[in-house]
Amino acid sequence: MVKRVLKGSYLALILLFMYLPILILVVFSFNDGKSMANWSGFTLHWYADLFSDRMILNSLWVTLSVAVISALAATVIGTFAAIGLHSMRKTPKAIITNISYLPVANPDLVTGISLMLLFVFFGISRGYVTLVLAHITFNLPYVIFSVLPKLKQTNNQTYEAALDLGATPGEALRKVVIPEIMPGIISGFILAFTLSLDDFVVSFFTQQNVQNLSITIYSLARKGINPKINALSTLMFVTVLLLLIIVNRRASKEEARMKGRNGRRNGVRAFSGEKAAQKG
Amino acid sequence: MKRSYFALPYTVWMAILIFAPMLLILFYAFTDESAAGGVVFTLTNIIEAFDPLFTGVLLRSVWLAFVATAICLLLGYPVAYMLARSKSKNVTSLLVLFILPMWMNFLLRTYAWLVLLDNNGLLNSLFALLGLDKVQLLYNQNAVVLGMVYNFLPFMVLPIHSVLVKIDKYQIEAAEDLGADSLTVFRKVIFPLSVPGVITGIMMVFVPAITTFAISRLLGGSQFMLFGDLIENQFIFVQNWHFGSALSLIMLVLVLVSLALTNKFDKAEDGGRLW
After folding, report:
1. What does each C-alpha distance from B162 to A7, A8, A276, B272 come to in angstroms?
2. ipTM
3. What is the pLDDT of residues A169-185, one digit of tens each?
4. Domains of chain A, earliest start first
5. How many domains does chain B fold into?
6. Nearest CB to B99: which of A24, A213, A272?
7. Given the DSSP bridges, would you call strands B31-33 and B39-41 parallel, antiparallel or unpaired?
8. Residue among A70, A69, A77, A86 nearest A151 (CA)
9. Do A37 and B122 touch (CB under 8 A)?
């Protein structure tokens, strides 16, 4: 009994440590007055300020559009790459897979700097396009490594059966292979999308004047406390919470459907682990 | 058309945007601009990077990353253990609660501590209420370590947890049947089996901690430089890309060597690996 109470209070203490700072941000986003220590009344005017701040709205647009474009592009290129890799001989496959691990193992800082060097070396001015290229690049391996395990689970005989029954290779791919690996493709897309949304370090080095949300937050936070960031944090936290609930629902539904098949991992847990590898 | 050709666009992409940039870092690190305006091979960048001025910064970064990793392990292991051994029905939701902050932008999480630790922030107002003097909480090593622990703690909990839940409970019961008390069971059975997860967790905290520049800039101020800041500085402000590349190369080698060491440790077990 004592042990259980001790355990419970330890977990509660750690949760408090993790959530109290966020909670305080949320509470003070409704505070009239600039102080982050004294409560001077309820207001929504920081939210109004937030939505009339050109720079923040603009960087929100950059973040969302780069995330959508880079995730889509990475999903298409990465899915084809995975299908190609799957039917490759051992040695070229091993070489490509190992180089694909580079951006995963590399610290963000090195990835960002190396891409910046590339763009400068070839005289490409760093802006929106280079930002998108960089995001596609670090997203690609995550898509490939989400799709490849699904391909390994598929049965190559169904593809051959489709060919025997008169389907062209294109049709067989579209009607047999792609539907079977769809869960992996969707996971890859969601993973790429969230990685892109959250990226700071690579974006920091691969553009000069196109700020995304992370860069804007960094430059605002460097100037000190700003209640507008609190309002922004609150909105982002709520969005993340909603998204996670949706993804979680999808994962558990799929899990129920896929029960019995082996090699299946807990959706949310796998996502978070993979995401973690990219952070910093 | 052969299906292996499907990987062709990616292979080209990879060669240009993953492989070539790495070669460029090598190229810049070992070259410098000559007086005539050309490019010459040189080792001075690498040699200069080992100047005590810079190795001091490197050592400080390694030390702070080490401290942050140790604290994360001490705080995170019990969390992972309790969650893995819990028989409660709500344990999945609890786990989600622990990893949820990971999904929030890490700059916002760092900013949250800026608000708390500020000279006119909540903690200092609490101190004032208690009749204590104001304490300078921001812009020192402790604030930076705190920021790292806060940001990276979930990365420690998650891999350890995923290894612990996979431990065969009959092994634990067998040990108990053979007369081991709970401490012995932990020491001789559970902990050794969780080592792969611990190692993954250590890497997942140590690598971002050693490369960060935003956390140290926001919570440590501009006076307090880490190796990540040093590199960022070389590229953004000093614009000495040859020297910056040399520093990046050193960081890269450091990270890859530690990753290789980790791989050696958990070859047998795939539980804690990411893929």
Report:
1. 19, 20, 14, 7
2. 0.87
3. 888 888 888 999 999 99
4. 50-278 (1.10.3720.10)
5. 1
6. A272
7. antiparallel
8. A86
9. yes
